[in-house]
UniProtKB/TrEMBL annotation:
Biased composition (Basic and acidic residues): 151-163
Organism: Miscanthus lutarioriparius
Top-level division of the source organism's lineage: Eukaryota
Disordered: annotated span: 141-177
Protein name as annotated: Uncharacterized protein
Cross-referenced PANTHER family: COLD SHOCK DOMAIN-CONTAINING PROTEIN 4-LIKE, ZINC FINGER, CCHC-TYPE-RELATED
């Protein structure tokens, strides 16, 4: 009795998040590339029926029953590929505003630990990237420094709204952290690039009292 061929990764389902689709598409592309079948999902390419059949079989193997039924009569892998891409790309219209709201509401002072903040920062930045919105190192550092709790105040996770809305300049007026304090606080945030962070720590170590904007400008001038 022959064994049933199992998929190499989870099948795509209609209600998957776009993140799952991106992972699924990358896995399919890798297989097609390894088997010289990449052209089967490229418009205008001249592929043989055998190549299309092989690509079609692999794509169908990694679709759930709902998608298989939907594309049952389609014999061109490119048509299925483009249809799925269009379908999940439309999710960006919903996911991007939600990710932007998460970014706007992200405040270092609202987390109980650096690790928890770093995890949230990574998740939100990744979600924005999936929606074609890149967050730069400068923006991540700006977000972190401008929403950090004042010296001597531990993140409580329950700051009042007014504290979260403190202007960047106001934050630096009441923060007097030393370089070593910032080093401990920022070193645990693996999402931040070490170079710009070290530049900020240099400012603190020489006891310069920069404005918020000058800190950011200095980081990226080096």
């Amino acid at each position: 009795m022959s064994s049933v061929l199992q998929p190499d990764f989870p099948r795509l389902i209609p209600f998957d998040a776009r993140r799952d689709y991106v992972t699924w598409a990358r896995n399919v592309e890798n297989y097609l590339a390894q088997n010289d079948l990449s052209d089967t999902i490229v418009s205008g390419s001249n592929c043989s029926k055998q190549e299309k059949a092989q690509a079609l079989f692999y794509i169908h193997l990694h679709l759930n029953e709902d998608f298989k039924n939907e594309y049952m009569l389609e014999r061109d892998p490119l048509v299925i590929w483009q249809s799925l891409k269009d379908r999940f790309d439309r999710m960006k219209a919903v996911e991007l505003p939600r990710a932007k709201l998460d970014w706007d509401c992200l405040h270092f002072s609202n987390f109980d630990s650096v690790t928890a903040y770093d995890s949230a920062l990574r998740r939100i930045v990744s979600q924005l990237k999936l929606c074609d919105k890149e967050i730069t190192d400068e923006e991540m550092i700006e977000k972190t420094l401008s929403t950090s709790p004042p010296r001597g105040e531990r993140p409580s996770g329950a700051h009042e709204k007014s504290k979260c809305q403190t202007s960047p300049e106001g934050v630096f007026q009441k923060e007097e952290k030393t370089g070593s304090e910032w080093e401990v606080e920022l070193s645990g945030i693996s999402s931040l690039s070490p170079g710009p962070v070290k530049n900020y720590i240099f400012w603190s170590s020489v006891h310069v009292r920069p404005t918020y904007s000058s800190v950011i400008d200095f980081m990226f001038a080096c």
